[in-house]
Write a structure and sequence with these properties.
Two copies of one chain form a homodimer. With about 230 residues, chain A is of the alpha+beta class. Chain A has nine helices and nine strands. The mean pLDDT of chain A is about 90. The structure holds a DNA duplex (30 and 30 nucleotides).
Chain lengths: ~230, ~230
DNA sequence: AGAAGAATGCTAAATAGTTTACATTTCGAA
DNA sequence: TTCGAAATGTAAACTATTTAGCATTCTTCT
């Protein structure tokens, strides 16, 4: 499974100054999960903040009929559960470990105590949430506006920048299809076109981007709102 | 112009306790705008919080070629500009008044002063942002998963609940088309079907929903993730 | 009441995307 | 090294959506 969304957003943990990161670590209990293990269920009333230390976590919704939708996959340094601290909502998604995963759990009271001593904490949490909201607004615009090939290219670009190796995206066609909400056949056709234009190279279970700059300018020609600041 | 998105979300102003609302009012300068008047430009560096008192504000992005995309339309009690308080971002969108509009502007320093005296303020702002993020995550899921007729019905339902009269949505087919990112012809066909099923009545510049419950159950049959909590 | 502008209705041809089904390739584990 | 699972390639029939154009209806303003 590849990173699906929330690419290119500075992780919460990276926004924290060192001393806050340490304090938060003291207030946390680390738990390990195996691949596929359930971390929380939608509707759970145990409030708290969860910080991913290693591995990844996918947040899903399950329908009455058992069908599942993955809303987002979060990686190292990213958080979930902040809704339970800031609002009265229960856990809004099922959370499932992707690969071996370590998660720091900070209880509501642990968070409240620290936030009372360190007012910056709440501000950083709010800032992190605001950044994510901003990214989602832009992403939704893209989904509404852009034809599939351009949207695909843009998403691939984001994914490549988020991953360490900026030239390789680990992601199957099937994953991409789900992410973009289209069929695998359509994605196959689009990728074929992008490859024919020399923008990507298709591999087994991954996609290579030989020249990131070429991809950027290809997108820029087709998306008048494209700005590159990341 | 109709409300486009951000339906059904409790407005920031409604989350404030009375005394905070008053304090914030004292720190604010109210400005009036005519229909279509520019309130702010993307990239403006004047940080502050803007609270809509009456009328509406649309947030847009303009492309290099002059093309415009409306990201969201906000109504009474809703806010914008909070990104400039919580992050280092400049104003992220152009803001344009829709109809005669009054906006309270609270400067960054005004907000900071009040937030220092009233720690709840920041918490409520963070909660409001979190609620909006949550709504956006669900909305993006809907865009990816749902066939157009179901998505259309769901959006109409949200819009109807947000408006005072819950049985009427003021919205042209062209507005709806832009909101959903499809052509007007497609929307026309979808609405025709929904009308044939007795779920809506098309009028000139508005859509009526004779029985909200019928619409809900029609959606529930077609969207296994549909939950109605609002 | 009449005119103008806004919104809707409708059609036809072209394009895009889905579904289904199966063949082929790649990778990793036995 | 062989086998099986996962991923990709491809094709055909079908459905959905777009584009472009014009006719019609509704509303508002004068």
């Amino acid at each position: 499974m590849a990173d699906l969304l929330e690419f290119g957003i500075t992780a919460f943990d990276e926004l924290l100054p060192r001393h806050l990161r340490q304090e938060l670590g003291k207030a946390a209990v680390t738990r390990l999960y195996k691949d596929g293990e359930l971390i929380q269920r939608r509707g759970d009333r145990k409030p708290g903040l969860s910080i991913i230390r290693s591995g990844a976590v996918k947040l899903c919704n399950f329908g009455a009929d058992g069908s599942a939708v993955t809303t987002v996959v979060l990686g190292k340094g990213q958080i979930f559960g902040e809704f339970t601290l800031l609002t009265d909502l229960p856990r809004t998604h099922d959370a499932i470990a992707v690969g071996r995963t370590a998660v720091d759990q900070v209880s509501r009271s642990g968070f409240e105590d620290l936030a009372a001593r360190e007012p910056d904490l709440l501000r950083i949490l709010a800032g992190s949430t605001a950044l994510r909201l901003h990214a989602m607004l832009e992403l939704l615009d893209d989904f509404r506006r852009l034809p599939l090939p351009v949207l695909t290219a843009k998403i691939l670009l984001s994914m490549s920048l988020r991953s360490g190796e900026s030239r390789v995206v680990k992601c199957s066609q099937a994953d991409l299809a789900v992410t973009l909400g289209v069929s695998r056949v359509s994605i196959g056709k689009v990728l074929k076109r992008l490859q024919a234009d020399g923008l990507i190279i298709q591999r087994y279970g991954r996609i290579e981007i030989p020249e990131v700059e070429n991809l950027k300018s290809w997108i820029a020609v087709r998306d008048h709102l494209f700005r590159f600041e990341a």
